Amino acid sequence: MKDIKSLDLNLLKALDALLDQRNVTRAAARLGVTQPAMSGMLTRLRDTFDDPLFVRAQRGIEPTERALALAIPLKQVLGEVQTLLQPPVFDPATATQRFTMASTDYAMRAIALPFLSTLKRLAPNIQVALLLVNDTQMLTQLERGVIDLALVSPEYTCPDLHARKLFDEHYVCVLREGHPLVREQADLTLDRFCELDHGLVSYTGGGFRGATDEALEKLGRQRRVTVSIKSFLIVLDLLRASDMVSVLPSRLVTGLEGLAVFEPPVSIPGYTNMAAWHERTHRDPAQRWLRQLLFDICFDCPPGHAAQDYAAAPR
Question: Could you tell me the domains of the chain?
Answer without folding.
Answer: 4-85 (1.10.10.10), 98-168+271-300 (3.40.190.10), 171-262 (3.40.190.10)
